[in-house]
Amino acid sequence: MAAAPTAVTCRVRAARTSRRAAKPSLNFMGRLPSEILFKILSYLDASALHSISHVNKLFSQLANDNALWRKIHMAALRRTKKRKAKHMDELLLQTATVELQGRPAGFWKCLHFKAALTYDMNKCKSHLALVSRHTGLPSRTERVLRDLHVTWEVTVSDQSGRDGRHELSWSQFCETSVSLCWSAGGCSPNYKQISTLQLHGVRRIALNCPGLKIPGWRSLMVKVDVQALTECVQVIGQDRMVVLKLLQPGVLIGVWRDQCSVAFVMFTLHFHRLVERSTQGESLRTYVEPIIKPPFDDIDPEYGLHGYQLHIVLHDTACEIMSESFPELFCRRTQISDGLIQLTAISRTTPSQHAALSGSISLPWRCEALQGTVENCCIMSLTLLDEFKNPFWCVGSPVAMALQTTPVSYDYDGEHFLIHYQDSDGRVKMELVKEQKQFLLISLVVFVTVCKVNKHFSKDY
């Protein structure tokens, strides 16, 4: 008499039977006429159709069919028209006249995705029109970036020509800027071998496709030739684990001490036209900012030297240290010196103007499981508006604070410090004093190059 089958044997047989049943099922789908498969796919929405295109070559070919995507696109346009969006009648008419024949596979899919991006951008333009009277910048920049599904990617290229594309580890929004950080983790590149760094804004299509890479648009924002900047790199601080190297304003690299490997890369981006820079450039070319010239004035002898408004924020990667606005800044024509106009926001000789900071000057960092704090450096976000309340000079960058051996003010007994920033458009000079564990800002002067003023206001100072 044969022995009764054990429970394990039964489960094995059941598994084999299941696998044998699955194979004919897949073969059955493959043997279906393309017309029937096409009919089945015609009931799917954009997310499902994009997802099924990743199953195999057959479904990739069918799911990119122009007729399917034309149907989805036209239905989306009709839904948009019902919401009474502008110019929808003209867009429907133009789209209806586009022929299916002669178009490459995926043409209508691409057209639909581009139209979706344009439609979302038009919806958000009204939010960008709401401008803060303190900063002169759109007050809902963060909300618009999130509504548009904007993210950022860092591309690291080494000297051998290899590229590594990385999504950001974290981002921190403040009042007028955003800090973006990529942590190297276990794939730390050698700092000396890095050739270029690129930051792209990436705008994804709003699709529900978990686990799949969503199609989108890449906009180049920053490209840094690391090798060309080797000699002018500024070390702004260090702790027991990392050294902070400022490659150029807004671009910071953390390098492990006593090593050459990169711990993290951090970008600081000012809010001025951040949405446009993140979405409207191209993969190899940055967004070109339109030139907005103020009205010509040949009557005012000091036109372009007065009516400035300054908004400055000091913060770290976690919280705000200071945020102040200074209206009606000016410089007399006779005070122009060394090719710079001087705008004094806080004078060291006027104690009533001195401002207390709400925290210490430090820059916390984190990388995978490690974290630390570098003292005497922070992030500065500066917005200088002209007399017409338009952004004239915008800066977002980490800055260092240095101890002054000679006191700049004898009204205070504590240690004196200096924060100095400089780029091609101007300089910022901040003098601070530490009294009873609290920092006081006792001087704030902004210097703008005469060349920038002359170019903007069509003057010849």
Task: Describe this structure as you would to a colleague.
Residues 26-72 form the F-box domain. A hairpin with a 2-residue loop joins strand 15 (362-367) and strand 16 (370-375). This protein has three domains: 34-90 and 105-125, Monooxygenase (Up-down Bundle); 140-278, no CATH class; 305-457, no CATH class. The strands form four sheets. Strands 11, 12, 13, 14, 17, 18, 19, 20 and 21 form a nine-stranded antiparallel β-sheet that branches. Helix content is 25%, strand content 36%. The protein is of the alpha+beta class and 461 residues long. The protein has ten helices and 21 strands. The longest helix is centred in the N-terminal third of the chain and has 25 residues, at 7-31. The radius of gyration is 29 Å and the shape is globular.
Summarize the structure.
This protein is α+β, with helices and mostly antiparallel strands and 461 residues long. The protein has helices spanning 7-31, 34-41, 46-52, 57-63, 66-82, 88-96, 107-128, 141-147, 274-279, 450-457, and strands at 150-158, 163-167, 170-173, 177-183, 194-204, 216-225, 234-238, 242-248, 251-256, 262-270, 308-315, 320-329, 340-346, 355-356, 362-367, 370-375, 377-385, 391-404, 415-423, 426-435, 438-449. The longest helix is centred in the first third of the chain and has 25 residues, at 7-31.
